């Protein structure tokens, strides 16, 4: 089965693999959690779930930068969200990094310390 979609104004065809999931409402909040994560469902009332974040960007790369830094410009002077937390709260342990990045980021801007310096950047993991 193929669908036609749009990516930055270009038409693309890609295969769609059906992967059925069941979402179950947990906790007093009734937030739906995928059946794959039953332990998350057990503590869902203690987790902040943000469902209101949007961006005017149409490209995933630009949207990821804006979500990480809060700015639309692709420059290295703006710190990422993790850098702000690192700068503000510091580390709870001098032998561990303040925050880490798991996997490959779309852009180095997502893990950069920006004008706080490299000391506030994410440690790759």
β-strand number: 6
Task: Kindly report how far apart the N and C termini lie.
Answer: 37 Å
Spatially, the strands of the biggest sheet line up as 1-2
Radius of gyration using CA atoms only: 18 Å
The major beta sheet can be summarized as: 2 strands, antiparallel
* Structural class computed from helices and strand pairing: alpha+beta
The coarse silhouette is globular
Q: In percent terms, what proportion of residues is strand? A: 15-25%
Tally of individual helices: 3
The low-confidence runs, each spanning 5 or more residues with pLDDT under 50, are 1-6
| Mean pLDDT rating | 82
* Order of secondary-structure elements: EEEEHHHEE
Q: Residue share in helices?
A: 10-25%
How would you characterize this protein structure?
It is a single chain. With 125 residues, the protein is α+β, with helices and mostly antiparallel strands. The protein is 19% helix and 19% strand. It contains 3 helices and 6 strands, in the order ββββαααββ. The chain has helices at residues 38-42, 60-69, 81-89, and strands at 2-7, 10-15, 23-26, 31-34, 100-101, 123-124. Strands 1-2 form a two-stranded antiparallel ribbon. The protein has a two-stranded antiparallel ribbon with strand order 3-4. β3 and β4 (31-34) form a beta hairpin. The chain starts with a strand and ends with a strand. 14% of the residues are buried. Mean pLDDT is 82; it is low at 1-6.
